[in-house]
Amino acid sequence: KLHSDLDKGVGTVKYTLSGDGAGTVFTIDETTGDIHAIRSLDREEKPFYTLRAQAVDVDTKKPLEPESEFIIKVQDINDNEPKFLDGPYVASVPEMSPVGAYVLQVKATDADDPTYGNSARVVYSILQGQPYFSIDPKTGVIRTALPNMDREVKEQYQVLIQAKDMGGQLGGLAGTTTVNITLTDVNDNPPRFPKSIFHLKVPETSHVGSAIGRIRAVDPDFGKNAEIEYNIVPGDGGNLFDITTDEYTQEGVIKLKKPLDFETKKAYTFKVEASNLHLDHRFHSVGPFKDTATVKINVLDMDEPPVFSKPMYTMEVYEDTPVGTIIGAVTAQDLDAGSSSVRYFMDWKNDVDSYFTIDATEGTIATNELLDRESTAQYNFSIIASKVSNPLLTSKVNVIINVLDVNEFPPEISVPYETSVCENAKPGQVIQTITAIDKDLSPAGQRFSFKLSSEASNKPNFTVHDYRNNTAGIETRRNGYSRRQQELYFLPVVIEDSSYPVQSSTNTLTIRVCRCDSDGTIQSCNVEAIFLPVGLSTGALIAILLCIVILLVIVVLYVALRRQKKKDTLMTSKEDIRDNVIHYDDEGGGEEDTQAFDIGALRNPKVIEDNKIRRDIKPDTLRFTRHRPPAEDNTDIRDFINQRLQENDVDPSAPPYDSLATYAYEGNGSVAESLSSIDSLTTEADQDYDYLSDWGPRFKILADMFGEESYNPDKVT
């Protein structure tokens, strides 16, 4: 209610209301100033309103007093029940937990004013779920109320929780929620076999490693707490079987470790133990977490193939054994109750199997061809045995036949040796180690002996030392060898084997004598080196070579000086030696005659007249005092010399002047035999030409020319 002191109650004052909720929530009586709520108020929606009021003159409309502000507060009543905003709840707790084990805390919210009265004071209680769980009325914490709750008995619990305001008093509002509680598993139960004896039937033909049966122990626990490990307790028959755990079904899978045989043993009995892998120490006092059961296995008789008496057969036979000779036998037997007969045949795979045959009834193996150990030392093939009553049931066995050697071949030296001995070798020095081979057997299976042949035993050059390990050494017996006397020695060595009959061969070693240094290192084994001085040092050989080189240089210088001197004489002489031309019908004197006359005089005169003067000779020296016609029967000489002159004229490397350097023609029937320069001496030393007088009148002029002590061109005609 609003009232102004200026209001005398005569209706001259008018009250106005403005602000939060004016006209919509609240209204005012303009005459009396009473404020009324025109609709229901909700504190939880708006707890207070701020309004402004003013008194106004009815006539003038002017405020009589300043505007005043006031607040209308909504007083709370208990009109909201508690609510579980997070419900429904899901919780879990391990089974076998003790009393008071924490499970979950729930919380309810009341929208009423907690500062006014008890409208917002909430109290919790369990409406459903007792006596298994309890709840704290103030905090809402849920705990276990019974000990040893077993998941295997009951796993799921649904608890109904109530929250009531007004402190739980009568008339308070309440809200509820559901809590689903699950007991989680712990390993509190050992595995148990549902029965104490398991019976299995297994065919004797079961393969090793195959599964022959399954057994299972029951564990009411869950997950890893229910994982079971199976083991065979050592005892009767346990070594033939093995057991593993199927990780999906937790069953024990029994597998075969060794083959079964009904005829040998018809039944096996052993025990199997089942135990948990993951134990909980809190429950050790309950007892051992394992169980034991007995497994009995009955072996079923099956129709089986024959069984060989051995897993493999090895036989031996000598090479060259006659065809049809029995070398051994295989045996197979039907172990079934019917005991059927057995037939044998070879498993043909290649041509090697044709060397042997087998008797189908007896199983004896015989040769079918002649055997040669040097060609094939071992044969490997298979024999198949089948039952007469059921030919489809077969078994196979390998047969190895070793061909024994008959000593046919003599031993011989393994490789061709290149043996050498130093000239300065000492007696007893080993110059070569030799080995032998035998085509019959490898050296590992033979014993070889080495010795000299009887004809070489008496010679004092070399000997053979047998080391008795299939090797021998060649030793010297002399103090030094000379290549000048003998370069090669041939040593016959006799090699014998140890087989029967004994075979031997004579092998000849070639020993070459070589020059070696003081350390025994070979320096030369060539034939050309035999004539070198023996015992000369390297320094002495170098000195000899230097002397030879110096002598050669002196000879070359001397020859060069002589040639230079003669060249100067020819160029300065007014009467050139080429003017001294001798015409005769006999064969020429070779290269040496070029110093006495110009061989160009033998040319055809017509050719000489036609030839132009060469620029490299003096013109006045080409005049001849007289000419003689050439012999008619020496046309071959003319043609030959013209050809050679033509070659020298066009050859820039030919010597100057029209002199013929060399020619190799000789006539027939000469008393002086060959005048070719091939046999001429290489030096220009004075020679004895007196023998020219003995050749007859044809060579008189030549004898006079070369017989004079001094050369005089005026005497030449």
How are the elements arranged and paired?
Blueprint: E1 13-19, E2 26-28, E3 35-37, E4 48-57, E5 68-73, E6 89-94, E7 102-105, E8 123-128, E9 133-135, E10 141-144, E11 156-164, E12 174-184, E13 197-203, E14 211-216, E15 228-233, E16 241-245, E17 251-256, E18 267-276, E19 290-300, E20 307-308, E21 312-318, E22 326-329, E23 332-333, E24 342-346, E25 356-358, E26 364-367, E27 378-387, E28 394-404, E29 412-413, E30 419-422, E31 430-437, E32 449-452, H1 454-457, E33 462-466, E34 471-476, E35 488-496, E36 504-516, E37 522-524, H2 538-572, H3 605-610, H4 635-649, H5 700-707
Structure, explained:
The protein is mainly β. Among the domains are: 13-73, Cadherins (Immunoglobulin-like); 83-184, Sandwich (Immunoglobulin-like); 197-300, Cadherins (Immunoglobulin-like), CATH 2.60.40.60; 307-404, Immunoglobulin-like (Sandwich), CATH 2.60.40; 412-524, Cadherins (Immunoglobulin-like, Sandwich). The protein contains 5 helices and 37 strands. Strands 30, 32, 35, 36 and 37 form a 5-stranded mixed β-sheet that branches. The radius of gyration is 70 Å and the shape is elongated. 20% of the residues are buried. Mean pLDDT is 80; it is low at 528-534, 574-579, 606-632 and 709-717.
